[in-house]
Amino acid sequence: MSARKDYGEPIREMICISCPIGCHLQLFKDENEELVVKGNRCPRGKEYAQEEYYAPKRVVTATAATADPDAPRLPVRTDKPLPKEHINDLISEVYALEVKLPVDRGAVLIENYRDTGVNLVSSLTLGK
Ligand code: SF4
Q1: What is the residue with the minimal CA distance to atom 1 of ligand 1?
Q2: Which CATH class is domain 58-122?
Q3: For ligand 1, is residue 42 a contact (CB within 6 Å)?
Q4: What is the pLDDT of residue 6?
Q5: In testing the pocket of ligand 1, which one of 15, 17, 19 has its CB within 8 Å of the most ligand atoms?
Q6: Which among 70, 78, 62, 65 is positioned nearest to 112, based on CA atoms?
Q7: What pTM does this model have?
Q8: What is the mean pLDDT of the chain?
């Protein structure tokens, strides 16, 4: 049986949200500065922790103004998680939008935001 390595205090802790179990993950750095993940019950937890640590992303939801006073706000969201560093700028652009109605659920309002491959889409069919 091999001795269990002691990495000291974790550098981060997080809950894996890849499935409903919600494993409590602890992140350490080894002597080569490689990320070590503990607490995951399956390999998806390690992938989740690595992405969350090195390149966190989030699905963005917001509302955009429309040109129709009877339905002045349209719920919108990104169709995929967006790298976190772009989120504030995207929200500023959403608040500057004025969407012409009618619009279908899933209609692309901003395409391939900053070459991330992420689109901003309508969350609702509105104005029909
Ligand atoms: S590590 Fe695996 S089992 Fe644990 S929450 Fe993540 S996906 Fe689920």
Answers
A1: 45
A2: alpha beta
A3: yes
A4: 84
A5: 19
A6: 78
A7: 0.80
A8: 95
